[in-house]
Fold this sequence. Notes:
- By secondary structure, this protein is of the alpha/beta class.
- The chain is built from five helices and six strands, in the order βαβαβαβαβαβ.
- Helices cover 48% and strands 18% of the residues.
- Strands 3-2-1-4-5-6 form a six-stranded parallel β-sheet, with helices on both faces.
Amino acid sequence: MADVALITGASSGLGAEFARLFAVAGHDLVLVARRGDRLEALAAELVAAHGIAAHVVVADLADPRGVAQVTAEVERLGLAITYLVNNAGFGTNGAFVDLEQTRELAMVEVNVAAPLALTRAFLPAMVSRGHGRILNIGSTAGFQPGPYMATYYASKAFLNSFSEALSYELRATGVTVTLSCPGTTAA
C-alpha cells in the first residue's frame, strides 16, 4: 500500500504547493478543500505529471460535519493516511466587537477544531503502524497577542501549543508532529 498524504486547504496557496511536493516524491494524495473545481484541476495536473493517485474530497471544515465527511471518504477508499497536513485556515481583521460572531466561530472550527479532530481521527492508526507524520501549519501570529485579529492569533496559539505538546507525547512512537510557523503568506 502506498504512503498517502492528506492535505487540507489544498485548493490554493501552501496547500497546493504541499500537494505538488508530495506528488513529486511519489506519494498518493487526498486533497481536501471547499473549491472542488480547483481540487479537480490540481489532482489532474499531479496525476498526469507524476503518475500518483489523487483523491478529491470537497468539504467545508468550518462545518463540524466536514471532518466526518473527510474521514468517511478516506475509510470508504480504504486508505491509510501516513502524512497529515493540517493546512486549512483563515483569518479576519477588525475590532473583535465589530466582527460577525458566526465568522469568528467558523474560524475556530477551521483553525482549531478541524486539525484537532483530523489528528485524532488518523493518529491512532499511525501509532499502531509505528510510522506517520503530521504537519500543522501554525503561524508566527501564535506567539503573541494580535489586536484586531484576536481570534486568528488565539487560534494559531492553540495550534502551536497543541503541536508542541503532541510532538513530546509521541516522541517514542515513530510518529512525528511538526509545526510550521510562517509569517504573512499570499493565499
